[in-house]
Amino acid sequence: MKYNENKFFVKFRASAIMPPQNFLKLSIFKPDWIVHCMFKLHLTQPQLTYAQQNYAALEAIPAMQRRRLSPLAKMALHGALTALAGNHADYIVWVSKYGDEQKTLDILKDVLQEQTPSPTQFSTSVHNAIAGLYSILCQDDTPSTSLSCEWTEALIEAYAILKSSTKVKRVLVVAYDQALPDLYSDASDFPAFSLATVVSLEEPNLEVLALSGSEHMESLAFYQFWQSVEEKPSVVRWKKC
Length: 241
Known about the structure:
Layout: E1 2-4, E2 7-13, E3 23-29, H1 32-35, E4 39-43, E5 47-50, H2 63-67, H3 71-84, E6 91-95, H4 101-112, H5 119-123, H6 129-137, E7 144-147, H7 151-164, E8 171-177, E9 193-200, E10 206-208, H8 218-226, E11 238-240
Parallel strand pairs: 6-7, 6-8
Antiparallel strand pairs: 1-2, 2-3, 4-9, 4-10, 5-9, 8-9, 10-11
C-alpha cells in the first residue's frame, strides 16, 4: 500500500489465477475531515494525576468506600473531581485504552483454575465501571459515555456532543490508563495517570487539526504540548489559539 497526501493507492490481484503482473490499481480518496479534522474547543486547565499522589479530591467520599477503589479508579475520580472544582459539566466522556485490565486477568485466572470469579471483581472490571462508581459515590447523575480510544478521539466525541445537543454546554473529559500486565505480549511500560478537563465551544483556545498520532499514550503527549512555554505551540494534531 502506498499513501500519497489525501489518496490511498491499493494494488490487488483480481483472482488467484491472474499473473502477478496483472494487478489492478485503485485510487481511493480519503474524506478531508479524516486528514484535516479541524475544529475548535475551549479547555479548562487540564488536570494531570499520577498514581500514589495525595488524592485530596476524594475526601468527600466515605473512607470505607474510598479504600475499596482500585488505584486506577482513584486516579480517574480524583482527576474528574479536580477538573470540576469551580466548574460544572452537562455530560461526561470517560476514555481509557485498556481499562482495569489487571482485574480482567485475575478473573480469567480464576476461570482457568475452575474457581468462581468474584461478582464484585467482575462488576468493577467492565469498561464503564469507573463511570458507574463516579455516579454512585459522588451522587451525580450527569449523562456519560465510556470509550476505548486516545485523547484526540475523546475531544472529537465531546465536540460532537456539544454540536448536536442544545442542552449540553460543557463536557467533562477524563482519560485514564495504566500499563498492561507483563503477561501481554504488546505490554509497554508507562506511568499510570489520569488527565481531565472541561471543554466547551465558548472562546476556543485549542484547535484540533487531525486524528491521533502514534504516541503510545497520547494524553501524556497532549499535556506536555499544553504546558509548553512557547507563545502558541503547535504540533501535527493540535494548535493553541
